[in-house]
Amino acid sequence: MARGCTSGAPLLLLLVIFPHLDASQAVDQGLSDILNELWKLDKNRLKSGTDYTISLQGRAGYVSQGSNVARDYASAPLFSYVNEAKLKKIKTFSYLMNLLDNYEPSTGVAEKVTAEEIAENNLFLNAVLETDVMKRTHRYLVSKGHSQSDLSQFRNQLYNIWFHLYHRDRRGSEDSCGFEHVFVGETKSGTELMGLHNWVQFYLLEKQGLVDYKGYKSRDRDTPNKDDHILNIQFSWNGLVKPVGSAFVGVSPEFEVAAFTILFLASTEKTTRAVVNMDKYQVELVVSRHGRYIGTAYPHLLSTRRP
User: Is 167 an active-site residue?
Assistant: First the structure.
């Protein structure tokens, strides 16, 4: 389903300003507006150069889909420094980190969810719901008829969208959920790396020597710098290569949950894509459904408007 502008003149203006856009990529102004509100409300977003430092190094090369051989254009890690003490002091980050070791990364292997892990899920969601970002998201979704005003019902809706287990590999048992795919990462048949679109998980895996950053992915209009909050990158995890991965950097968990939940609930299509102008970035947000739950969700940086 096409989203965004429908009249010829506004679309023509958009194509002049952003010549890489085509008719199917018209900017969704309504979504841009609410995401910019949430961006301004994201008080827990970390500051580049102060709370963390990244080292972009070289531009990564082409890797064919299915190949796990990639030349390394980055001899050092992506993250040179992260203030972990600050992360642990912010509830949503702290509770997020508690969840990252709760999953079996291989699809086809049933997840065993303990009572302790359910409690950790609930602590994370409760902390997210206390933030200004998610309070504004709730009001917005209620105004659009996508969520109930009752907070407990909204909380249950979020839990189902993100944490309900389902079959990703049809040969196995309930082996996946939206949260695992997006925030933790998964492997398929031991040959393919999937998901892993969260910067905190990337940093922690990199710190353990499990992730190897290969370089950034870009064209001229989206060449990144060290202060950017959205990156397209190439990396390997336990020897499996992600030819192009993308993630927000420094942003809070509540902002990611909010942005992807809004897009997920905006459509019933299998895959929903929307181009938004957010802060200084033009981004394509992508959410794919797995039935009534999130299958995957990620941002893809299209361009950056430098000051």
Answer: no
**DSSP string across 7-38:** SHHHHHHHHHHSTT--GGG-B-HHHHHHHHHH
Residue 214 annotated among the catalytic residues of the structure:
no
Marked catalytic residue, from 214, 217, 229, 242: 242
The verdict on whether 242 is a catalytic residue reads yes
Long-range contacts of 208-213 (CB under 8 A, 24+ apart): 210/237, 210/238, 211/235, 211/236, 211/237, 212/72, 212/236, 212/237, 213/57, 213/74, 213/77, 213/78
Amino acid 4: pLDDT: 36
Q: What is the pLDDT of residues 245-254, one digit of tens each?
A: 999 999 999 9
Candidate list 138, 181, 214, 217, residue with the active-site label: 181
- Express each pLDDT in 26-68 by its tens digit: 999 999 999 999 999 999 999 999 999 999 999 999 998 778 9
Cα distance between residue 251 and residue 247, in whole Å:
10
CA distance 44 to 250: 9
How far apart are alpha carbons 177 and 105 in whole angstroms?
A: 11
Is a pLDDT exceeding 80 seen at residue 79? yes
**Catalytic residue selected from 91, 138, 197, 214:** 197
Chain-centroid distance of CA 140 in Å reads 20
pLDDT for the residue numbered 65: 78
Please give the radius of gyration of the chain, using alpha carbons only, rounded to the nearest integer: 19
pTM: 0.89
